Every structure is written in structure tokens, then in C-alpha cells.
From TrEMBL:
Record field: compositional bias (Basic and acidic residues): 481-498
Name this protein carries in UniProt: HNH endonuclease
Alphabetically ordered keywords of this record: Endonuclease, Hydrolase, Nuclease
Record has DNA damage as a keyword: no
InterPro entries in UniProt: DUF222, HNH_nuc
Organism: Antribacter soli
Lineage per the UniProt record: Bacteria, Bacillati, Actinomycetota, Actinomycetes, Micrococcales
Length: 498
């Protein structure tokens, strides 16, 4: 390889007769432009729009994809080899950059975290894994194998010595001694990434068994979880040991399950919802906080005026301990007990509760009347009233057995009881007839998406699965209609009806 300085006045030639770096880069950029022009997104979209059929295009693209990946990987590896030399030269610090990684992030327009990972990888390869660097640059191994060796190989002094030390292959005593790194590379060439990762882990254990214990203790010391209130929600960040991380991952996977055909959420969104489901399951089932006066849960404070605006003025006799009137089964009106003008908010943080979320929470909650005096002193606290009682919940569970939204089978422990045909906030009665099980995801979807529900009764078990003529689901007895009046049916019902 020949490297020519940018000024063109000096050159360092490692391979006699090789072309200067700048000339090779110019050709590379030209060829890249040509490739994109021939098979880039715009070229393919234009061909599709014109209705032209390119013979064997998919076959050619299938063959081209691994070649492009291999070339891109080799180029990235070559670039990694440059970084320690650029850092050692020191010109990057002339303009006052605090670190080489921060300079690299600015110069190449990437995140600082990305630059730090690249600098660490390049340093590890150049200092401890030179044969791995060469193997990746020549295309002998790919980026996954390189990452496995970087992350799992030279992680302690004993392991670095084992990688650099030479020994004769015990299966071929007549062979030339090779380094531990080269033996791992031979395994990398013959292995897929997953089994190769296990081989590197085995190498790490036998070369420095005590390092794993040291690493575990370090990992325990590094464990943390940050839950910070930020604009519009909470920011979660943290680090867990393999043990605790696996426990969390297993719990989330069990709650997430397999997505339905109509579930278009990303994996990260489904994972976030699963984490919230795990938290609610702990709270709803009273697995903690049994010694406290109030079982830990979400608490919302709402003024009487806003609750009345949401629910409408009641005409029946209230069952709460306050005076006045209210809807049957609701706390009685405490007169001027609320704080007019204040929106509903989460009691713990003071964060406003959106109206749609307030309606959802009111479906299945405890309502406690608190009477304030003119000076905001608490004058009286009524007993908690559940919008859904234990007996009613058991009856709904016995009937519905799982989330009744089409194609969903989430169990009752992950469901809320939803006021189905007429919302509690709209004066709907709290009864088995007006209640349905919805998992938290679909409960939110129904409330925020203005989806209506209608009970038509579950048909006899001999009726085949499918959407009936009246639009009723034969699997749950509930019919769902979107905001435009179009029936919502499950994938199985849709295909069966078709």
C-alpha cells in the first residue's frame, strides 16, 4: 500500500509501485457513485415506476448483497487501522479538542459514543489482535467475528498472554507453533458467529478463570437504574448484570409474547409496554407494600369540577360518604370540595394527566373523596370506592377469560376491566353487561382511538370461527368498530369469513 501525504510533497510506500491513497479514494468514490446510480434506491424505484421488468434482477441483487457487505467491512477495518496513527500524530489536538474521540465525532459527524467505540476497537486490534485486524482487512473474517474477538479475547493480562503465546497444535505435533490468536482465527473461519462466541468464551474461561469472578463483582458494582422525569414522560437508563438482565429479559419476553398480525409496533415499543405491564402486575396483585397503609399504585388527583365535566352531573343517590348527589355506585358530591380549574395530575409528580388517559384510568380504579377547606386544609376523606368490584371482576374474567380484542389472548392478570358499551366517564353503569377484559395495550388503543364496542352474546361453540353477518366476533361475543364505523375483525376471523 502507498500512502501519500495530503500536500503531495511526501509519500510513504509500503508496497512498491502502488498508487497513492488519494488516487485510490477518488476511484472508490467514483465507483460508489456508479453503483448507487445503477442499483441504488432511486434507480430501483424508477424501474418500478416505469413498470419495467429487469430479467433476473432479484437474483443479481441477492448475489451482490454479500459482496457489498464484505467490501464495506474490509473498508471499515482498514479505516480502523488508521485511527491509532492519526491519534499518535497529534494534529487533531491543535484546535483544542478535549479528546481524540470528541475530535473524531466532530470531524466525521457521528455521535461521541460511536467515536469512542471505534477508538477502543482500533486500539485493541492494533495493540493486542494484529492478526485479527489483518484477517478482517483481507476479508478472511467478517465484522461479527471481529467484534466477538475484540469483546471476549484480550480482556485480562493472562488472556492477552495466551493470545500472543505460541504453541504447537496438540492435534498436529509436527506443525509449526502458532499463536493463540491465530488458532482462534482458524476457528472463526470455520464457524458461524454464535458457536464462535461460545468458543471464545471457553478460551476466556480456561486462560483466566478468576477473571470471570472479578468481572462479575465489577458488574455488580456497576449496576444502576435511572428513572428520571423528563418532558412528556420518563427517561430510563441503566446497566444490569447478566443474571439480573436475563431475568428482566425473560420476564419481558413472557409478557410480550408473539405480536399479532395487526400489531405494527416496533420491538422497542412492545418491550416498553411489557415493562409497564410487569410493574402493573406487581402492583395490582399486591406482591409488595403489604405493610404500608396504602398498597403502592398510581395515584391521580382530579378536581370535582373536572370529574363532573368528564362524567356529567349525576342524578342518583351516591354511595360515597360525602353529602350531595352522584351517579349510582360513585362517591357522592362533596359540594365545593374540589379545586376548580386545576387539571387532573399524577399525585406523586404533579404531571398533568391527559383527558384520554384519565378516562382510561377511571375505568378500573379506586375513587377516594377528599374535601378541602377554603385554605386548602383537608376537612374530610371518604372511603375508597372501586369503579370495578372484586365480584364483578371475577364474573367478567369467568366470561371473557382473556383480552377480547380481536386476535389477542393476553391473560386476565395483564388486563383491565373496561367499561365497554358506555364509558364510566360518560355515565356508563358498572355492570358485567357493560364490562369487558382488555389488555393494557388494547385498552389504551380503544380509549384513544375512539373505538366502540357492542356486546352481542357469544354464539354456541359449534359455530365456526368467523365474523358473523351482524359483525359480531364469534370468538368473544364483542363487536369492535373504528371511529369511521368500520368493523374491526381479527386475522383468523377475516380469513375464515373470506
Amino acid at each position: 500500500m502507498a500512502i501519500e501525504m495530503a500536500s503531495g510533497t511526501a509519500s510513504e510506500t509500503a508496497t512498491p509501485g502502488a498508487r497513492p491513497l488519494e488516487a485510490v479514494l477518488a476511484d472508490l468514490e467514483r465507483l460508489t457513485e456508479e453503483l448507487v446510480a445503477v442499483a441504488g434506491p432511486s434507480a430501483l424505484d424508477a424501474a418500478d415506476a416505469a413498470g419495467s421488468v429487469v430479467s433476473g434482477l432479484a437474483v443479481r441483487l441477492t448475489a451482490a448483497s454479500p459482496r457489498v457487505r464484505a467490501v464495506a467491512s474490509r473498508l471499515q477495518t482498514a479505516r480502523l487501522a488508521w485511527l491509532p496513527r492519526i491519534e499518535a500524530e497529534g494534529m487533531w489536538a491543535v484546535r483544542g479538542a478535549r479528546t481524540f474521540a470528541s475530535w473524531l465525532a466532530t470531524a466525521e459527524n457521528v455521535e461521541v459514543g460511536t467515536a469512542k467505540r471505534e477508538v477502543r476497537t482500533a486500539t485493541t486490534l492494533c495493540e493486542h489482535l494484529p492478526a485479527t485486524l489483518e484477517a478482517a482487512a483481507t476479508g478472511r473474517i467478517g465484522p461479527d467475528h471481529l467484534r466477538i474477538l475484540v469483546d471476549g479475547g484480550p480482556t485480562s493480562e493472562a488472556r492477552r498472554e495466551a493470545l500472543a503465546g505460541r504453541a504447537v497444535d496438540p492435534e498436529d505435533p509436527a506443525s509449526e507453533p502458532v499463536t493463540g490468536e491465530e488458532r482462534l482465527l482458524r476457528l472463526a473461519v470455520a464457524s458461524k458467529p454464535s458457536p464462535f462466541r461460545r468458543l471464545v468464551q471457553h478460551f476466556a474461561r480456561i486462560t483466566d478463570p478468576e477473571s470471570d469472578d472479578r468481572g462479575y463483582k465489577d458488574a455488580v458494582d456497576r449496576e444502576f437504574l435511572e428513572l428520571a422525569k423528563t418532558f412528556g414522560g420518563y427517561h430510563v437508563a441503566g446497566f444490569l448484570t447478566d443474571e439480573n438482565g436475563l431475568a428482566l429479559a425473560t420476564a419481558l419476553a413472557s409478557v410480550m409474547g408473539a405480536p399479532t398480525a395487526a400489531d405494527d409496533r416496533t420491538a422497542s415499543r412492545r418491550r416498553a409496554a411489557a415493562l409497564a405491564d410487569v410493574a402493573r402486575t406487581v402492583l395490582d396483585n399486591g406482591h409488595t407494600g403489604t405493610g404500608a397503609a396504602v398498597r403502592p399504585h398510581l395515584a391521580v388527583t382530579v378536581s370535582w369540577s373536572e370529574l363532573q365535566a368528564m362524567a356529567g352531573t349525576g342524578t342518583g343517590t351516591g354511595t360515597g360518604t360525602g353529602t350531595g348527589t352522584g351517579e349510582p355506585g360513585r362517591p357522592g358530591e362533596p359540594g365545593r370540595s374540589g379545586r376548580p380549574g386545576l387539571p387532573a395530575y399524577f399525585t406523586e409528580t404533579g404531571t398533568p394527566v391527559p383527558p384520554s388517559l384519565l378516562r382510561k384510568l377511571a375505568c378500573d380504579s379506586e375513587v377516594t373523596r377528599v374535601v378541602f377547606g377554603p385554605d386548602s386544609q383537608v376537612l374530610d376523606v371518604g372511603r375508597a370506592q372501586r369503579t370495578v368490584t372484586g365480584q364483578l371482576r371475577r364474573a367478567v374474567i369467568a366470561r371473557d377469560q382473556h383480552c377480547v380484542y380481536p386476535d389477542c389472548d393476553q391473560p386476565p392478570g395483564r388486563c383491565d376491566v373496561h367499561h365497554a358499551e358506555r364509558h364510566w366517564a360518560d355515565g356508563g353503569e358498572t355492570s358485567v353487561r357493560n364490562a369487558a377484559l382488555l389488555c393494557r395495550h388494547h385498552h389504551t388503543l380503544v380509549d384513544t382511538g375512539r373505538i366502540s364496542m357492542r356486546w352481542g352474546g357469544r354464539p354456541n361453540s359449534e359455530e365456526p370461527i368467523g365474523a358473523r353477518e351482524d359483525g359480531m366476533s364469534s370468538t368473544s361475543g364483542w363487536a369492535f368498530t373504528d371511529r369511521h364505523g368500520k368493523p374491526i375483525t381479527g386475522y383468523r376471523e377475516h380469513t375464515a369469513a373470506a
